């Protein structure tokens, strides 16, 4: 009888443990796109103008359509560093705002200098270009800080192809291609806004 009670106790305990883990596994861990409801891999940062950040979950397709809107309506110019896996954010900063906050950083100086002498036509489609695409081979989660500090001219350009000028549409095509090809997920993505020149870079805060 005693043996039977012990066995029964063990079975009940095992069942409890099993159902606990089974339930845990079944809890939804997938984030949903706040626009269309499919699985979301990104956070899109709504508006940095009001200094209040709201990051909404978004899927790849909706992210690309938001970015297309941002990049094609932006009236300034920007250096766009190719997306790279590792850093959690892929965000825009205006040179002005960046320069005021990080005086020792050369990133805004490099962006200003290179935007001044960029080609005026898009390499891909021949329309007016306002983005300068810089490839990011060598940029990782560990050294993006040094790229921000020393600028892209000293850190990225020596090991990457010559920067190319692109229009907003073609620039977003390149970004979308990279995100898909390298399966990059970002916690926060923001597109260029406003009228001031700036840069877009994979980074962390
Ligand atoms: Zn969506
Ligand atoms: Zn183009």
Account of the protein in words:
With 205 residues, this protein is α/β, with parallel strands linked by helices. It has 2 domains: 1-30; 42-203, no CATH class. 40% of the residues lie in helices and 16% in strands. Helix 2 (60-73) runs antiparallel to helix 7 (168-181). The protein is elongated, with a radius of gyration of 23 Å. The model has no long low-confidence stretch (mean pLDDT 90). The structure holds zinc ion (2 copies). One zinc ion binds at residues 122, 124-125, 127, 166-167, 169-170. Residues 33, 35-36, 38, 58-59, 61-62 line the site of one zinc ion.
Q: Keywords for this structure?
A:
205 residues; alpha/beta; 2 domains; two-stranded antiparallel ribbon; 40% helix; elongated; binds zinc ion
Write the topology of this structure.
Layout (H helix, E strand, L loop, with lengths): L1 H25 L15 E4 L9 E4 L1 H14 L4 E4 L7 E6 H7 L5 H10 L14 E4 L9 H7 L1 H4 L8 E3 L1 H14 L6 E2 L8 E6 L2
Parallel strand pairs: 3-5, 3-8, 4-7
Antiparallel strand pairs: 1-2, 4-8, 5-6
Helix pairs in contact: 2-7, 3-4
The structure holds zinc ion (2 copies).
The site of one zinc ion (ZN) has 8 residues, from helix 2.
């Amino acid at each position: 009888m005693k043996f039977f009670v012990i066995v029964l106790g063990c079975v009940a305990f095992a069942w409890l443990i099993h159902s606990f883990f089974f339930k845990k596994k079944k809890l939804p861990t997938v984030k949903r796109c706040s626009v269309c409801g499919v699985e979301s891999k990104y956070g899109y940062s709504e508006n940095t103008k009001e200094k209040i950040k709201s990051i909404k979950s978004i899927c790849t397709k909706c992210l690309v359509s938001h970015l297309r809107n941002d990049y094609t309506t932006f009236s300034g110019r920007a250096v766009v560093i190719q997306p790279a896996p590792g850093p959690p954010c892929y965000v825009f900063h205006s040179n002005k705002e960046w320069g005021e906050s990080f005086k020792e950083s050369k990133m805004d100086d490099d962006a200003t200098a290179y935007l001044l002498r960029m080609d005026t036509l898009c390499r891909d489609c021949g329309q007016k270009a306002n983005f300068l695409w810089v490839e990011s081979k060598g940029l990782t989660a560990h050294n993006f800080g040094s790229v921000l500090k020393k600028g892209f001219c000293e850190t990225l350009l020596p090991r990457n192809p010559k920067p190319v000028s692109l229009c907003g549409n073609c620039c977003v095509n390149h970004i979308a291609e990279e995100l898909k090809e390298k399966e990059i997920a970002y916690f926060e993505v923001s597109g260029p806004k406003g009228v001031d020149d700036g840069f877009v870079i994979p980074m962390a805060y």
